[in-house]
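S.,

Sequence below, as promised.
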Amino acid sequence: MNRTTLSLIAGATALAAVTGFATLKTPDASGGDTTRTAARLPVERTSLLCPQPSTSDIADTAYTSFTPVAEGAGDRGKAELQAATAESDGSTDGKKSGGKAAKPVVRPKEPGKPATGDTSGAQTPALVGTAEGKFAPGWTVQETTDVAVGTGRGLLGTNCTAPDTEFWFPGASTAEDRSDYVHLTNPDDSAAVVDIDLYGKDGKLKSSVADGITVQPHASEPILLSTLAGDPQTNLTVHVTVRSGRVGAAVQALDDKIGGDWLAASTDPAGTLVLPGIPKDATSVRLVAFAPGDTDADLKVRLASPTGLITPAGSETLHVKAGMTAAADLGDVTRGEAGSLVLTPTDSSVPVVAALRVVRGKGDRQETAFIPATAPVSARATAADNRAKGSTLAVTAPGDGAKIKVTASAGSEGGSAVTKTFTIKGGTTQNVEAPVPSGLKGTYALTVEPVSGGPVYASRMLASTQDGVPGFTVQTLPDDRGTVAVPEAAQDLSVLLKQ
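The prediction came back faster than expected:
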């Protein structure tokens, strides 16, 4: 066989095991293409980035790392989170060129058991992390910050994310009572060049400073959105694109009066979107959507309640003009019951992105969180940093009913894993009675796995009341991409001998 052909096949297989999905197509004897079945194997390496948690001197941040036990992942590997500015130079001893060791904030010891770390104050940097071998498949890291007073006070949480080249954030704002920052973190050895576009109700906002932003190697840049635009805008969509390199991106939305939280990126633009896990006691819900193409979108707005799909009175549809941000105030749409928003096209399907701003509490005791549209759990998803009290797992089956398996991991300081199975009726949202590890000490992880039926979407709310203020944060649970498809080793490659 030609050595080049062999090298290409081996390279594609190795790349798939590290970064993504791959299939192998080989021409058959008649000249047609045949797609061979690909085996799914655990990923061998995963990277995650955690933004700088706060600029408050009284902020306390907890980091929780968790990797589910994965069949076929082997018995070797390592994972660690450390300051972005202290990233190693690739040497195997974890030291920089000058020989000074970079002290990890979190270093898990085994899959199936959470590992924790914490920081405090305004000088806490962004973190970069890498998991290899048995720690890579499904690696999840949660960043949770408590801020007692000041702008954006409350409970702020985000899942640390993989670096990428494009992000959509509907739901941002440059209103006078908001201080929204887009955090850009570069994990690589070369600079990244980033463009930031802002879209309001009348279209793209003019800016002379939002293009060609340089993020230095192993560095993080928090950029105040109000410095990129002119007049204040209540509802904005932020589009981050990377010209060269790759970054992690997240928006920190801080309000003077009603707290704040992290706004994670919406799933890729699509005609149908699901925004799961609106708290049942939400006092205010605002939907923000954006159509990035050249065609207007008309969306049917429905709430997946515990009993089925219902249409909110007065908010049956939402018209989204192409290239413009649209918003709809839904009030206390859940009315004391679990709920998720389901957006579908009224006629032709036009790709959109969307997110919800959710408020709990009343008067001067209000808190804010965000729920972006998310992808379904195709194989497995995990929420880290759950406590003995205050965790709510919401699961939505917008189409056909589904059966799911939920596993509570061992506790970070003690306790045994527990698994339960639940049935979610089609068109509903259920706040499931998630299991808690027996003998729990510390924090634990919740892992959701579909067993049968239609697609499911999930989120986890973590709540912690302080001085009467209902602090909370919501993280969606997209699939953890813990496995990849790799061509079978026994492929019939004889036809390639003739190439």
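The longest strand covers residues 353-362.

Coffee later?
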